[in-house]
Structure formats: structure tokens, C-alpha cells
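My main concern about presentation is that the manuscript never shows what a single data entry looks like. An entry of this sort, consisting of the sequence and the corresponding C-alpha cells, reads as follows:
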Amino acid sequence: MKKIVFALISSTLLVGSASAEEASNSSTCENFGPQTPRDIDQKTGENPAKFSLAQSASEMNLCNIHFHEGAEHKAKDFSIYKGEGDHGYGGGYKCGMGKKLSEAELKPTNEVICRGEHGELKPGDTIEVHWVHTSCDVEPGPTLGSCLSKSCGNPELRVETQVFTLVNDPDALDFNDLKLASDLPKNTGNPVEFLGSTTGPNYTEAVCSPYQVTWSVRPKCAKLDINSVGQWCKGNMFEEDHAHGVRKLVTNPKLLSEID
């Protein structure tokens, strides 16, 4: 379970590419480690697979940043269900603060923001951002492949996570200032840390991810200037220009780790 074969890493693994041999004929995949995303307010889990928590982000190397439209995880602050969406696009959860935005914050943007095959971002949308860290000595870059190297194919992985409500407000947080985990807002609660997997819409409770990840998810939403996200999408070292789809929330206790 722990081994990751470097040669098999593809450009889509970071957002949940799944191979046929990972599929299970049963409704719940078996013999896999704990899965992600989850409701971080629910601490119980029955998955027996154990691996050590990764080092703190400050002791690891940032290898990738990407985001999902809609929160993949669920918590009290982001618990408004959007539905399953179209293969994960348009699904997930929204921040409660999105119901209390001002007319100015919801004003349409002057240009299209981060348009992808499944649409673009708009004020009032929720995104979940992942700062992916590795124990490998690598430079940041596109996809999960940037988190490994030929000499380091079995790293520890950690994902620092923050959920945002997008607002049309230059006084809100600037996405381009959030380059490192240490730059994340300090007023969104103590991160909930747990053992899990990679995410993305190609994984389900029947098709599980084999990759082992330490997650650190902040339980409260923050407002983020949508125009700064649009600027980031126009050019970044991660080659990210649109939001990814979400993996459906994992609720089966057999697929979840226990949160201390």
C-alpha cells in the first residue's frame, strides 16, 4: 500500500485518475487505506490501515497547488450540499458565508475567471485549495508527478487545505499572496489532521485511491478575491488554469481513519 511506483505516475493522478485494476466489483472497495474527502466534524473511522503522519509542512517541500470548485470536504462552515454535479463538476459543498454576501461582493467580474471545459468561476462560488507537500527534494510543478523523482518514488505526502468563498473585492485575501502553507489565514480554526488518500472525481467508495496522504484541513471558510484567482489562472508554475471536479464525500466508516 505504501509504495508508489514512479513510472506509473500520470499527469492526472493529482485530481483522481483511477485505473481498472483499482476498481472493485463490490459496492465498497476493500484492502485499501483510509480515503478522502470526509466530514471533518465526524471523528470516527474503522479503516485498519495505519501509516505515520507526515512531517509538518515547514519540514517538507511544496510540490503542487491546485483547487476544486466546491468543497470536497465537509464541515459545519461548509456544509451546504450542491449535489453530485457532472462527474464531480458543480458538486461538493458551499460555505455558509456565501448566503450573506453583499451586492458589491457578488458583482459580476469584468472578465471570465478560470474558464474550463465545465464552466468558469463566479463571485459567491466556493473553492477548496490544496497545497501539496512531499518529502522528496523536488521543485514545485504540475501534477502529482512533481511530488516525486527518479530517486524518490515513495515519499511522504501532506496536503494543507483551505476552503474559500470567492468575492469580487480587492480588499479580500489575494490568492497570489498564499504561496506557502505558512501564508494561509490564521483565523480559520485549528487544522483537522488525519490519514487519507488523494481525491478527485474518478475515485468513489467502489474505486479507491491507493495513495497515502496526511491531510490538514482548516474548519472555517475565508473570503478570497476572485480577481486574484483569475490572475493566478493566467500563469503559474503548476500549469493550473481551471478548477477540478470533486470526489463525492466518503461516508463509509470502513473507508475512514479515526481522527484523534
Remarks:
- The first strand starts at residue 61 and ends at 69.
